[in-house]
Design a protein that fits this description.
Elements: E1 2-5, E2 12-15, H1 19-28, H2 51-58, E3 62-66, H3 68-77, E4 82-87, H4 95-110, E5 114-119, H5 121-126, H6 134-151, E6 158-162, H7 163-169, H8 171-184, H9 187-191, H10 211-225, E7 230-231, H11 238-250, E8 258-262, H12 290-299, H13 311-323, E9 327-329, E10 339-341, H14 344-353, H15 358-382, H16 384-394
Parallel strand pairs: 4-5, 4-7, 5-6, 7-8
Antiparallel strand pairs: 1-2, 3-8, 9-10
Helix pairs in contact: 6-15, 6-16, 7-8, 8-10, 10-11, 12-15, 13-15, 15-16
Tyrosine (TYR) binds next to strand 4 and helix 10.
Catalytic activity: tRNA(Tyr) + L-tyrosine + ATP = L-tyrosyl-tRNA(Tyr) + AMP + diphosphate + H(+)
GO molecular function, one term: tyrosine-tRNA ligase activity
Pfam families: tRNA-synt_1b
Length: about 400
């Protein structure tokens, strides 16, 4: 028998807890796994590149850039421009978030930027992730950081800030502007940001939680709170970044951030416009085995000579030629023999003409993807802390 305090009356409530319930409770307890603070590696280095070289390096990141003149001006005037991206820690990490994110961070770091990762733990809570369990959310956040570290992200210019910590350190700075944002925009404008939380804009009011109105106001405020010069988030987050620029027209103490939105990588199967954690068939995960990757690429949509909406070409362009400057296609002599491509354009031209067949491209892509993921697999096998963390988050059995 045990007692808890009734929050309403303050009286004691007596309950009987059986052995089974006790065991279940013990099982559900979220473990805190000790991990070294990754921010100790933070030791910013300026870039030695010229303005032209920096622009060339950054060009492939932005599917949309608002705008180029402002970016040029920033790179000319600031040694360490501040870029930011935020993420809700939940579920598993796919290669778009793992490999493409790391690649783009490295490009920005090489151009002298400081990259702030906003670990959006409170946002995940607002958005009902991980059953609303903040401890689980935090562990998933720590897992994501471990993945990026192992994937080769250049941590010397990268800082991880936890929303829950930073907001509590400077609550006035944070909340006053959130309130101001809430005063300056109407409900329909905020509702138009639904996509940033993975929601439809046309959700009915009685189906919508008030949290869905809080969230965009908070995310918009993050930009100013972190003093970000560049919002370097995915295309799916562009609406709230545009809101920040609109806000700058309304508030005298706000500036217009530069928006550099990266491409959303396609899902594996036909018609999947974006790789999504909630659609397990659409994604290659950073914890997939070499065999899984092989199977997934083998089954991926990749009709001969068709480049439109072809995910295998998308990965080749964005990831393979991003991380490597060449790709070797190994073929039997009767199929044309081996060929090494040193640019994506050259490979695409051969694919269109039919000189390069999907059956030969797929194994080459599989090989490189597996090479890129292998250090992550090794880290989670060899490092005891990382291994314990992975075991812990696997116990949540999350699919989303
Ligand atoms: N909305 C982002 C997470 C995020 C939260 C707050 C931010 O300031 C930025 C990004 C997502 O869905 O992943």
């Amino acid at each position: 028998m045990f007692a808890t305090i009734d929050p309403l009356t303050g009286g004691l409530i007596w309950e009987v807890e059986g052995q089974k319930e006790k065991e279940q409770k013990e099982k559900n307890k979220v473990k805190y796994v000790e991990i070294k603070d990754v921010n100790i590696q933070f030791n910013p280095r300026p870039s030695r590149l010229s303005l032209e070289e920096k622009l060339k390096l950054l060009e492939p990141i932005g599917e949309e850039l608002i705008n180029k003149d402002e970016l040029i001006n920033l790179l000319k005037t600031k040694t360490f421009p501040i870029c930011y991206d935020g993420f809700e820690p939940s579920g598993r990490m796919h290669i778009a978030q793992g490999l493409l994110r790391a690649l783009n961070v490295n490009r920005l770091v090489d151009a002298g930027c400081i990259f702030i990762f906003w670990v959006a733990d409170w946002f995940a809570l607002l958005n009902n992730k991980m059953g609303g369990d903040l401890n689980k959310i935090k562990n998933v956040g720590r897992y994501f950081i471990e993945v990026w570290k192992a994937a080769g992200m250049k941590m010397h210019n990268v800082k991880f800030l936890w929303a829950s910590d930073e907001i509590n350190k400077r609550p006035n700075d944070y909340w006053l502007r959130v309130l101001d944002l809430a005063r300056k925009f109407n409900v329909s404008r905020i509702k138009r940001c639904g996509q940033i939380m993975g929601r439809n804009d046309d959700e009915q009011d009685d189906k919508m939680a008030v949290a869905q109105l809080f969230y965009p106001c908070m995310q918009c405020n993050d930009i100013f709170f972190l003093e970000a010069d560049i919002c370097q988030l995915g295309m799916d987050q562009r609406k709230v970044n545009m809101l920040a620029r609109e806000y700058a027209d309304k508030a005298s103490d706000a500036y217009k951030p530069i928006i550099m939105s990266h491409h959303m990588m396609m899902g594996l199967l036909e018609g999947q416009v974006k790789m999504s954690k909630s659609d397990l068939n659409s994604a290659i995960f950073m914890e997939d085995s070499a065999e899984d990757v092989k199977k997934k690429i083998k089954n991926a949509y990749c009709p001969p000579q068709v480049i439109k909406d072809n995910p295998v070409l998308d990965y080749t362009k964005e990831i393979i030629f991003g991380w490597r400057n060449k790709l070797l296609i190994q073929r039997k002599p009767e199929n044309g023999g081996d060929k090494e491509y040193i640019s994506y354009a050259e490979l695409e031209a051969d694919f269109i003409s039919g000189a390069l067949h999907p059956g030969d491209l797929k194994p080459a892509v599989t090989l490189v993807l597996n090479e890129l993921i292998q250090p992550v697999r090794d880290h989670f096998t060899k490092d005891p802390e990382a291994r314990a963390l992975l075991q812990e988050i696997r116990s949540y059995q999350v699919t989303k």
